[in-house]
Design brief:
With 333 residues, the protein is an alpha/beta fold. The chain is built from 13 helices and 10 strands. It folds into 2 domains: 55 residues, no CATH class; 269 residues, Alpha-Beta Complex (sialyltransferase cstii, chain A), CATH 3.90.1480. α4 crosses α12 and α8 crosses α9.
Length: 333
């Protein structure tokens, strides 16, 4: 009799544990919420649906890192300030279709023209030498949207800088050089330029310093070169020259492309992480650093731009938890 009662008790215990386990899985599945690239919540009602989603542990971990460091109210306040100053995503990132429809006093999105929508998490990747041996590649690629500048090389550096490119931002010099290379097949730079743009398949190419009243010809030439070579990148431009707006907002003369990229990201992204923004030839520990992680060029950081001042500005925003400025090695997610 006692033995029978013991068996029944064990069976009841296992049944109870099984029921509790199923109930827990149901609760998890019901309330599992993820943030998509457009920052809208998507809910999955079944445990099987949760398992089959594209959400992974890396993305979940990155989101925790972002929300722990960045204060939502601070980031939102910055976005409002930028948009009030004229950096509205709907006018900042117009997608080229059949011409550059720019007007000095444009205040709303032109009819028939699309723009890039708001994003959730964005990585703005500079080219500083401190990215070498940083192991930041996986973390960078986990962001919803990745900005890079001036055709910075990623192949061969994926472990440190990642490989994802959603928007490649070009300054005037890079735009002109690319247009010359792509429109002249006999030019020595044609093959390299063609292969670079071919790798950027379906990527947005933002001509960041375009000013319709002064220097739109090189933009037409770049579009011609892209069409001539049947490249599938997508040209993006702003409704007016960015340089005066960025200068006025940040009170920094002749801002760098990096600051322009962050300004754009700050106006259209919920969370912004910056990598490769370190304008110094030595690390805090005294270790020598390259100017670019991918070449051996040198640059005086204060001759044309004011990069140390920009770095100080970004450091302040990082300390106030408005952005996340990554200057050290990344923890592999």
């Amino acid at each position: 009799m006692a033995s029978s009662q013991s068996i029944l008790a064990r069976r009841f215990t296992w049944f109870l544990l099984g029921a509790v386990t199923v109930y827990i899985f149901q609760i998890i599945a019901k309330h599992r919420t993820v943030i998509s690239s457009d920052n809208s919540p998507k809910q999955y009602d079944t445990f099987r649906g949760w398992l089959n989603t594209s959400v992974n542990l890396e993305a979940s971990t990155l989101r925790k890192v972002l929300t722990n460091h960045i204060k939502g109210s601070k980031a939102l306040d910055m976005r409002k300030r930028l948009q009030k100053a004229g950096f509205k995503p709907s006018l900042l990132t117009l997608i080229y279709k059949d011409g550059f429809k720019q007007k000095k006093r444009m205040t709303k999105l032109p009819e028939g023209i699309d723009s890039i929508p708001l994003r959730g998490s964005c990585a703005v990747v500079g080219s500083a030498g401190n990215l070498l041996n940083s192991s930041c590649g996986r973390e960078i690629d986990e962001h919803d949207f990745v900005f890079r500048g001036n055709l910075a090389q990623t192949i061969g550096f994926e472990q440190d800088v990642g490989g994802k490119i959603d928007m490649m931002v070009l300054n005037e010099a890079a735009s002109i050089e690319s247009s010359i290379c792509l429109t002249n097949t006999s030019n020595s730079c044609y093959k390299t330029s063609y292969e670079t743009f071919k790798e950027l398949n379906d990527t947005y190419i933002w001509i960041s310093k375009l000013n319709a009243e002064k220097n739109i010809s090189y933009a037409h030439n770049l579009v011609a070169g892209i069409k001539q070579n049947n490249l599938t990148v997508r040209i993006v431009y702003s409704y007016r020259g960015m340089l005066p707006l960025v200068t006025k907002f940040w009170k920094i003369r002749n801002p760098s492309l990096g600051l322009i990229m962050y300004t754009a990201a700050g106006s259209m992204c919920r969370y912004v992480s910056l990598y490769g923004f370190y304008p110094f030839y030595k690390s805090p520990s005294g270790k020598p650093l390259k100017h670019h992680y991918y070449d051996n060029r040198t640059l005086n950081y204060t001759t044309n731009h004011h990069m140390p001042a920009e770095y100080e500005l970004l450091t302040t925003l990082n300390k106030s938890r408005t952005i996340r400025l990554v200057s050290d090695r990344c923890r592999i997610i």
